[in-house]
Amino acid sequence: MAKKIIYGEDARKALLAGVNQLADTVKITLGPKGRNVVLDKKFGAPLITNDGVTIAKEVELEDPFENMGAQLVKEVATKTNDVAGDGTTTATLLAQALVREGMKNVTAGANPMVLRKGVQKATEVAVDAIEKNSHKVSGTKDIARVAAVSSSSDEIGQLIADAMEKVTSCRASIRSSWTAVAVTRIQVPPSAMPHSSILGLAFIWAKTGLTLPVWRYSLPSYRSTAPKGRTRG
pTM, whole model, 2 decimals? Predict the structure, then answer.
């Protein structure tokens, strides 16, 4: 199959057009007062959502070069969702801004490779600044606020916060040939489920690297003696 190839400013314009079409569709959902988007489905009713990555996955543009730009931003949203589970709309908005400003500098004569290195250094500085000014989530109220924004429901946010409050982290050392692990104890209300249904379930979050001694145990031995007058067959 023949391939159409474009270069220079024409290629940049096509990619930027695709980036803008996808990002403009996704970014209207940003924030707690973001708008919803209606997605057509081949089967079933249309889907109404404000989830950035869900919207991005549905975008397919007719022009192949513009579609390549859209797919690049879609990859940003997908990877953000895989790593953080949220923030896909913000990641899409930032990607659009980076591409737009980068295109301006390249058109003005900047070297793309040098520009890339500058973006990477600026990213490191920005991440450090965000970490210093970040607010650590602590307490049920903070968890409820974050969950409410992600779920678009105060009620669901409170349910998630209440569920997380039931989970208590503790540290335990296990005397075995395994390494010491972080153990999470889950408090299960008696009415929730039979305790036997969760026996044997274990989550290993992290290893400390400390090897502990092997358990030593012995089992009693039993000797079977046949009654007199009978032989064992």
Answer: 0.64
- Domain of 153 in residue numbering reads as 135-165
Domain shared by 23 and 123, yes or no: yes
| Integer Cα distance of 223 and 233 in angstroms | 17
* pLDDT tens figures, 23-40: 999 999 887 788 889 998
The owner of tokens 């707690």 is 32
Residue 207 scores a pLDDT above 80? no
Which amino acid appears at position 55 of this protein?
I
Assign 210 to helix, strand or coil. strand
Cα–Cα distance, 212 to 175 (Å, whole number): 6
Query: At 45, which amino acid appears?
Result: A
Residue 8 zone, left/alpha/beta (φ > 0; ψ -120 to 50; rest)? left
Distance CA(144)–CA(150), nearest Å, equals 10
